[in-house]
Amino acid sequence: LQIGALVSLYYTLVNSMWALFGVCACVIVYCVHLNFCVRITYALENKTEGMDAIIAVMDEPRAEDPHFRWKVVNYHIETQASTHTNSHGNTVTSRKEVRVETSTRVHEGTIPSIDQTPAFVPETAVQAMHINTRLELDLSQSNYTKKFHEWVRANKCDTHQDHIFHEEVVQSRRDHVLAVWRPGSLGWLNAYRLANLVCCSVCFRWYAQSQLGEQDFTYRKKCSDIDL
């Protein structure tokens, strides 16, 4: 009887542990989804109230040239040998190929540009607007792409290259802006974090989306030649 009770207790503990792991996994997935996959989370981090403040936030990227960042990693493959004694007492040599990174090169700068962004027209039919912004660069009259490829070739100092990366951003541009036209009119939005903690964020987002409008806005820059 005692052995049977111990076995039963063991299986109960094992099942409880698996249940706990399952709950923890669900909480982790829930938190990751909220923080990295939900646009309204980013918008709330950039909540701006009052027409003048909103116009200032939306106009700031107009005066800024795009910033670029390039990166490349150089590496080669080496064959490494290791020896060990097997179960029969024999010495066995095994070989494997490993990647050896020898250098990482990074270059940053700005692209001279002329702003061609249209005027921002607030849509005030609703109390607040979730504004999604994008950046479009016209590189047709710029040597930017040519210079990038030249830089990659000039910085090859080993057998192989990868992680070839380039990024162009306007640093003052916000991907998402929650524009509240009249300050203090949507105080209930401050309850979003609380709704997340009690696992009610889905219901909260459905309600918020029914109360908020959505607007897309694109910043456009005509780019000139860069110097290296």
List keywords for this structure.
228 residues; alpha/beta; three-stranded antiparallel beta sheet; 8 strands
Model description:
The chain has 228 residues and is of the alpha/beta class. Helices cover 35% and strands 36% of the residues. The chain has six helices and eight strands; from the N terminus they run H-H-E-H-E-E-E-E-H-E-E-H-H-E. The strands form two sheets. It has a five-stranded mixed sheet with strand order 1-7-5-8-4. The radius of gyration is 28 Å and the shape is flat. The termini are far apart.
Q: Summarize the main sheet.
A: 5 strands, mixed
What topology, given as strand order, has the largest sheet?
Answer: 1-7-5-8-4
Compute the separation of the termini in Å: 82 Å
Regions with pLDDT < 50 over 5+ consecutive residues? 32-38
What is Rg? Answer: 28 Å
Instruction: Please provide the ordered H/E string of secondary-structure elements.
Output: HHEHEEEEHEEHHE
In helices, the fraction of residues equals: 25-40%
Share of β-strand residues: 35-45%
Number of strands: 8
Q: What is the count of helical runs?
A: 6
Mean pLDDT: 82
Structural class: alpha/beta
Tell me, briefly, the overall form: flat
Short overview:
It is built from 6 helices and 8 strands, in the order H-H-E-H-E-E-E-E-H-E-E-H-H-E.
List the helices and strands and how they pair.
Elements: H1 2-36, H2 39-45, E1 47-49, H3 51-59, E2 67-85, E3 91-110, E4 113-115, E5 128-138, H4 144-154, E6 160-169, E7 176-180, H5 192-197, H6 201-211, E8 213-223
Parallel strand pairs: 1-7, 5-8
Antiparallel strand pairs: 2-3, 2-6, 4-8, 5-7
